[in-house]
Amino acid sequence: MTAAETAPSKSPRIVVVDVLRAIALIGIIITHAVDGFLAGPEPMKNFMVFGPLDAFALQAEKLLTFGKFYTLFSFLFGLSFAIQMRNATEKGRNFGGRFSWRLVVLLLIALVHGAFFSGDVLIIYAILGLLLILFRNRSTKALVVTGVILVLNVPGILLSSAIATFAQQPEFQAQQASNLAQQEAAAAKHYAVKKSDDVGALIEMNLSTGLLNKLGFMIVSGRLWVTFGLFLLGLVAGRVGLFQDTPEHREFFRKLLVRAAPVAAITTLVMILMPVGFVPLNYPELGAWVATSLQQVSLSAVYLAGFALLYWRGSGGFLGALAPAGRMGLTTYVMQSVFGLVVFYGLGFGLLGEIGVAASIGLAVLFSVAQVFIARAWLAHFSMGPLEWLWRALTYFSLRPNRQ
Q1: How far apart (Å, rounded) are the C-alpha atoms in residues 131 and 100?
Q2: Cα torsion for 398, 401, 402, 404, to the nearest 10°?
Q3: Would you kindly state where each structural domain of the chain is located, as residue ranges?
Q4: CA–CA distances in Å: residue 102 to residues 99, 326, 332, 359, 392
Q5: What gap in Å lies between CA 97 and CA 95, rounded to an integer?
Q6: pLDDT for 195-227, tens place per residue?
Q7: How far apart are CA 125 and CA 148, in angstroms?
Q8: N or C: which end of the chain has fewer CB within 10 A?
Q9: CB atoms within 10 A of CB 8
Q10: Helix (H, G, I), strand (E, B) or coil at 101
Q11: How many Cβ atoms are within 10 Å of 32's Cβ, its own excluded?
Q12: Contact 355, 49 (CB under 8 A)
């Protein structure tokens, strides 16, 4: 998230990182908007698809944003971890204990956030962040090797291979009809609760079955270890100062772009020709599932390298205007969920399932644009975002003035 920005430091901000974080957040809100912030099992096939434009928008989102900007966001969390650790080392402070407490505070914030929005990722970040502390003194080579293995979803591929093999057994196939009926009932209940204005029912569901469903998705999809692998690679990037604008780093990102783009193009074509769900039930589906996993990683690398090079080439420009929203990333992220609750849930306007995918994405983009201007105006008067200030205050037990 934004570990570096909430503790006092004399180190200059790396603005390109704020820009990349803002871009990741825009991609994340688009991903959540596609299903109206349902963030769970959909009550019907082609949910919120009312015409060709919605169908096109849904397909485009699956190919271009789903999983890609979450990947970028996770990488930047590991990068911020490295910056925070460097700042603590420069000041001679104990890093492990302080950062552990920071993550506990983040977990508390995440639980409040997750009580209202089941798509929260901060709970996972806080828990995996505690594990990341144990890796902070590992060699760069060990971090890269481990990170690459996890980011390529090798554990997920092995698990999915086992699932695809087991799915061929007669007993598994016989159980499918019963499982499908249960899943449909659970999806209908999930939808009904979010369409209602019952706050108590929403909180109870999100903090019980919502958390279990989140964990199940993270394991089955492989996103759990992919996320931690991205943390490790982000830690390496921060350790070597990869986002300092130098000729060597520009060349690195050019090579990354050239090598990742063909992989992204080929795997995207596979996704178009062989769409697959979260769980492969046979070996052809397993191949398509692996391609989907590689597509998310390779296209994320294209976005990372492409936007970094564009920012450096233009010395800011339009992309630089996004930086304030990324600088107060925690506030931006949580306020996106507030937008989702107000616009789509029964607690607000109740548009969940009432408008199509295209209109939902349009509203999300408009809100993102508004957030950019709001963040810019806020940081003209304050040092950090409101939730960043709260996070820092609870971490350091100090009510440091936030006004400029």
Answers
A1: 10
A2: -150
A3: 3-396
A4: 5, 19, 19, 38, 8
A5: 6
A6: 999 999 999 999 999 999 999 999 988 999 999
A7: 19
A8: C
A9: 11
A10: helix
A11: 21
A12: no
What is the C-alpha separation between 387 and 245, in angstroms, rounded? 29
Cα separation, 99 vs 151, whole angstroms: 24
Contact (CB, 8 A) for 292 and 283 = no
Contact (CB, 8 A) for 35 and 48: yes
> pLDDT band for position 60 (50/70/90)?
very high
Question: Could you tell me which of 339, 384, 330 has the C-alpha nearest to residue 121?
Answer: 330
What's the one-letter identity of residue 47? F
**CA distance readout (Å), 85 to 93, 125, 239:** 9, 17, 9
pTM of structure: 0.93
Give the Cα separation of 240 and 143 in Å (integer). 12
Identify the three-state secondary structure at position 254. helix
Tokens of residue 100, six digits: 């552990």
Q: How far apart, in whole angstroms, are the C-alpha atoms of residue 292 and residue 343?
A: 31
Residue 367 to residue 355: CA distance in whole angstroms: 16
Give the single-character DSSP code of 403: B
Q: Residues 6 or more apart from 357 whose CB is under 8 A from it? A: 34, 48, 49, 54, 55, 57, 58, 61
DSSP-H helix ranges across 240-356: 247-273, 283-314, 317-320, 323-327, 329-344
Tracing tokens 């908007």 back to the chain, one arrives at 33
Q: In this structure, which amino acid lies at residue 56?
A: F
CB 335 within 8 A of CB 28: no
CA angle 76, 117, 226 (to 5 degrees): 35
pLDDT digits (tens, 9 = 90+) for 316-333: 678 999 999 999 999 999
Using CA atoms, how far residue 40 sits from 32, 217, 218, 243, 255, in Å, is: 10, 10, 12, 35, 38
Distance, in Å, from the CA atom of 74 to the CA atom of 1, rounded to the nearest integer, reads 8
144-153 burial, b for 16+ CB within 10 Å, e for fewer?
A: eebbeebbbb
Retrieve residue 252's tokens.
């690195």
Task: Match 């996890």 to its residue by tokens.
Answer: 150
